[in-house]
Amino acid sequence: MDAPNVIPKHWDQEADIVVVGFGGAGFATAVTAHDMGADVLILEKAPQGEEGGNTKVAGQGYLNTSNENDAAAYLTALCGHYEVPDIMIRAWAYEMCLNNDWLSSLGADPQEHQHQPVGIEFPDLPGANCVHKFHDGPTYGYSLTWKRFYSLVKQRPIRIEYESPAKGLVQNGSTGEIIGVRAVRNGSTITVKARKGVVLTCGGFENNQQMIRDYLPDLPYCYTSGSPYNEGDGISMALSVGADLWHMNNFAGPSMALKVPEISTTFSMQAFQYNKELPGGAIAVGPDAKRFIDEKRKTCHGKLPMHGTWKKLPTPCPMHFIFDRTHMTTGPLWDGTPSHGWTQIVEQYDWSDDNSKELEKGWIKQADTIEQLATLVDLDSQSLASTIKEWNDGCTNGRDKQHGRTMMLNPIIEPPFYAIEMSPSMLNTQGGPRRNEKAQIVRPDSSPIPRLYSAGELGSIYSYLYQGTGNIGECLAFGRIAAKHAVAERPWQ
Ligand SMILES: Cc1cc2nc3c(=O)[nH]c(=O)nc-3n(C[C@H](O)[C@H](O)[C@H](O)COP(=O)(O)OP(=O)(O)OC[C@H]3O[C@@H](n4cnc5c(N)ncnc54)[C@H](O)[C@@H]3O)c2cc1C
Known about the structure:
Elements: E1 13-20, H1 24-35, E2 40-43, H2 53-57, E3 62-63, H3 68-79, H4 86-96, H5 99-105, E4 110-112, E5 133-136, H6 144-154, E6 159-161, E7 166-171, E8 178-185, E9 188-200, H7 209-215, E10 223-224, H8 233-240, E11 245-246, E12 251-252, E13 255-258, E14 267-268, E15 283-285, E16 303-306, E17 309-312, E18 319-324, H9 325-328, H10 342-347, H11 356-360, E19 365-367, H12 370-376, H13 381-397, E20 417-426, E21 428-429, E22 432-433, E23 440-442, E24 448-454, H14 470-487
Parallel strand pairs: 1-2, 1-9, 2-6, 9-24, 10-20
Antiparallel strand pairs: 3-5, 4-5, 7-8, 8-9, 11-22, 12-21, 13-14, 13-20, 15-18, 16-17, 18-20, 19-20, 23-24
Helix pairs in contact: 1-6, 1-14, 3-4, 12-13
Flavin-adenine dinucleotide (FAD) binds next to helix 1, helix 2 and helix 14.
């Protein structure tokens, strides 16, 4: 592929605005730009049917804040010491109050979640009451908000090129302007001219293990329950034309999940949340065969309050869930309801009711004694036995002295015994190229890279704490901002 500043002699396709990635941010950008009169082309990496990115498999909630000043105060507090310039906070706060108005004007059907105020993730922070979570139509989940976004794009003459991953940006070497995109289709490079601007909406680096090791704190590896197509391409492309990065260490996670080689995304499991009303229950142990957490404790998107601050859930790898026959026989250990998650919605994995298929596949390990189980999963047998004794004693006394767990205090005593290896998992990353209040991607000196914009989780505004539904809310807000400014550009000569 040519260097970024070699201008192609021939363009295979062209549009006023080239949008890279068809998820929530791509939708908001494309529809806004189209409705302002622009000719729009979307490049999408996934094949038709697997577009939509994390947006398609999300819980489907989006944030619509009720009051601009409160929204600004809340976001400022969410950022903590990882400050975001006030001008950005204000741009976010202003637009986040308009999400419903905009969607309604397009014919969508915003419905507020029914579990308010539980949905406020950090109720003690200033301005928290501004949080209002919405979804499209009467039912929450099941890709329904995404289906609305998708149909709004399809109703318009917006071109979508599937299986056409963007690989590089074309930069005019003398002006620094981004004038197009290089993508790959059917194994060949194609050049796409962007007469006014390029908007990167291609998600985060959830599936790029090198970036995960480089940027996410204390994670040797981590897997996602979202789209497998988000591999940090937008970060590499933006870096190659001089962009600054921000919020690279922030992500919505971790949680603990099963990851198997056959399937690219995770099986989310929080010590078997699915079975919480049933007998049984698992404990989680680290490589030293010791417990490290109250397995049933709910996190705020992977963060826990600790000593007056918020820290990510510890994930000493490899981790194992350990449980006994009582738990194994309570029903399926994974909930495949297709309400959210790539494994449920796109892979549609069919977990066996009695867990026998997964046992046979070796995803679940079984042994007659704790000692044999320890050997099977490479843990010290004495340490595991003593951890289980301590746990069982706590269950008998009704008190988990180590970690204060209060739910599912059930002893692990009924053979056979089982183990499942757990990996750190996440919903999405927040880092990426730094953008300004006009959604322009900027260089380290804060000057914008001409004609290059971004929206969505690629370089998201969230720097420290994350309010659920904030990502899709931001896709809508910054998608509109990016489109408005990109469409206002004069076509390059
Ligand atoms: C299970 C789950 C539940 C969640 N629930 C919620 C929720 O309820 N509310 C909320 O606000 N957030 C939620 N999130 C987070 C939220 O879904 C994402 O942060 C948000 O949808 C990201 O939108 P996006 O448009 O930036 O990226 P995505 O929706 O991920 O779209 C990116 C698109 O870019 C494409 N792409 C990638 N690389 C390239 C390339 N090189 N060229 C072309 N195309 C490319 C991808 O295939 C994809 O289609 C959840 C996430 C998960 C995984």
